């Protein structure tokens, strides 16, 4: 957790992480034919998506070799503003036509959608330790320490080998489809973006080991190369 970067505003936050994503992609593509990345929704990634969608960034990489997956999705209509994909598509993917993206189907039965997405991940990604392995995962966390759609009331003790799950949460949009800890922890590299005092307090608690009850604490058992970016 000591590998961190403090940024002063949303523009610096977005530009720094976007540049890191490009660097990871370039390094991976120098050795492999594909770069596999998973991204989360919410407000945290928006400045990053905006930078990735800029004309300057578009020119520095052959985006046709990049596959984008989504860490979680709300079970809402595909065109809904609450759909995590929509934000990423509007600010980034729409601007980079050649990029490959793999959308969670939020318009069908959630259990079927979760199984369908897990099958697509298993089919598309290389594996490590018997689990699909992303080159990079970029995610944020919630003010309560939740990661993906794994909230404090999620029963981590009953965690199984399922890689994508349909979960019901205490929220205005209760049904979600989410990647699980085994998949999130098997990535080669991860960027965790934290914006706001509450989230930075969670980071401090984790660093000092004063509170390990946050869902995000389950990421700490990973061997991934982590970079924490604070704003």
Give an account of the 3D structure.
The chain is of the alpha/beta class and 231 residues long. It has seven helices and twelve strands. It has helices at residues 10-29, 46-52, 55-58, 84-91, 110-124, 181-184, 197-208, and strands at 4-6, 35-39, 66-70, 72-74, 100-101, 127-128, 131-132, 136-140, 164-168, 175-179, 189-194, 225-230. The strands form three sheets. A seven-stranded parallel β-sheet has the order 1-12-11-8-2-3-5. Helix 7 (197-208) links the parallel strand 11 (189-194) and strand 12 (225-230). The longest helix is centred in the first third of the chain and has 20 residues, at 10-29. The two termini are 16 Å apart. The relative contact order is 0.18.
Keywords:
single chain, 231 residues, alpha/beta, 7-stranded parallel sheet, 3-stranded antiparallel sheet, 7 helices, 12 strands, globular
Residue stretches low in confidence (pLDDT < 50, at least 5 long) are none
Tally of strands: 12
Class from secondary-structure proportions: alpha/beta
Total number of helices? 7
In which range does the helix fraction lie?
A: 25-40%
Series of H and E elements: EHEHHEEHEHEEEEEHEHE
Q: What gross morphology would you assign?
A: globular
Residues in β-strands, percent: 15-25%
Widest sheet: strand ordering: 1-12-11-8-2-3-5
State the end-to-end distance: 16 Å
Largest sheet: 7 strands, parallel
Global Rg: 16 Å
Nearest-integer average pLDDT: 94
């Amino acid at each position: 957790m000591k590998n961190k970067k403090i940024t002063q505003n949303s523009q610096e936050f977005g530009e720094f992480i976007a540049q890191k994503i490009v660097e990871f992609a370039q390094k991976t593509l120098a050795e492999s034919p594909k770069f596999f990345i998973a991204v989360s929704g919410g407000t945290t990634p928006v400045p990053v998506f905006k930078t990735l969608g800029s004309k300057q960034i578009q020119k520095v990489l052959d985006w046709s070799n990049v596959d984008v997956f989504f860490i979680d999705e709300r079970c809402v209509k595909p065109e809904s503003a609450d759909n995590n994909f929509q934000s990423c598509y509007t600010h980034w993917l729409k601007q980079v036509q050649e990029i490959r993206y793999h959308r969670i189907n939020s318009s069908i039965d959630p259990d079927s959608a979760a199984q369908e997405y897990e099958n697509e991940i298993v089919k598309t990604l290389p594996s490590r330790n018997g689990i699909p392995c992303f080159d990079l995962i970029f995610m944020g966390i919630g003010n309560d320490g939740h990661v993906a759609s794994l909230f404090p009331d999620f029963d981590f003790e009953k965690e199984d080998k399922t890689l994508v799950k349909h979960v019901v949460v205490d929220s205005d949009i209760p049904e979600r489809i989410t990647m699980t800890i085994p998949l999130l922890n098997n990535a080669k590299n991860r960027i965790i973006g934290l914006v706001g005092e509450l989230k930075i307090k969670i980071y401090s608690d984790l660093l000092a080991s004063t509170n390990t009850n946050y869902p995000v604490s389950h990421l700490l058992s990973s061997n991934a190369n982590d970079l924490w970016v604070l704003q």
